[in-house]
Amino acid sequence: MPRLPEARSLRQGNQLRGLAMSALQVEYSRHWYAIHTHPKQEERAENNLKAWQVETFAPWRKGRQIRRSATPTYTHLPLFPGYIFARFNVQKLLHKIRYTRGVHSIVSIGIQPAVVDDELIMLMKSRSSEEGYILMSGELRPGDEVVIKEGIFKGFVGIFERQMKDSDRVTLLLKAVTHRAQVIVNLDCLEKLDAQ
């Protein structure tokens, strides 16, 4: 009979070790969360979170503005205005993240922060260009057939070759009845033809 207390304590010790291991797994698990930022403070929130050694991902897109001078300028715009993503351990850093400058709140379901799937973040990262902008699905790719909407080549059909570096101009291979010619036109003058 004296062995029963030893067996019970051994079982309790194993259970405690199991609880400690699961607590350690939770403690060291980091997940992605959507962070709601204050208006136009995505970069500020991202930089401040990085200062806490928090991994962040702020998807950006290239925006185009036309001013009175008619020369377009490009801007750095958030893909999701007012939101960025951060990967952290919610048990350890929730309080710090919530009170980081630039952060409004953590997107939650009820009171529990909502985990963003790793695969979604990886998909967005895989669609990033060399400049760090997310490529949208409607963007032109080499070989796409396009029609020119305006200018002296209006109505001509061509094949998209490439976008000129640091420019809104593109290179097309025009398809004509007797020959083909390479031309450079503004990107906004093009419309992608539907595959039929």
Shape annotation: elongated
* Helix share bin: 25-40%
Q: Just name the CATH architecture of the largest domain.
A: 2-Layer Sandwich
CATH homologous superfamily placement of the largest domain? NusG, N-terminal domain
The overall strand count is 14
Termini separation: 84 Å
The SSE order reads HEHEEEEHEEEEHEEEEE
Mean pLDDT: 77
Percent of residues in beta strands: 25-35%
| Overall tally of domains | 2
In CATH terms, what is the fold-level topology of the largest domain?
Alpha-Beta Plaits
Notes on the structure:
The chain has 196 residues and is α+β, with helices and mostly antiparallel strands. The protein folds into 2 domains: 26-126, Alpha-Beta Plaits (2-Layer Sandwich); 145-192, Roll (SH3 type barrels), CATH 2.30.30. The protein is built from 4 helices and 14 strands. The chain has helices at residues 3-28, 42-51, 90-98, 118-126, and strands at 31-37, 55-57, 60-66, 72-78, 83-88, 103-106, 108-109, 112-113, 115-116, 145-148, 157-163, 169-175, 180-186, 190-192. The strands form 4 sheets. Strands 1, 2, 5, 6 and 9 form a 5-stranded antiparallel sheet that branches. A 5-stranded antiparallel sheet has the order 13-12-11-10-14, with no helix packed on it. Strand 11 and strand 12 (169-175) form a beta hairpin. The longest helix is centred in the first third of the chain and has 26 residues, at 3-28. It starts with a helix and ends with a strand. 13% of the residues are buried. Mean pLDDT is 77; it is low at 18-27.
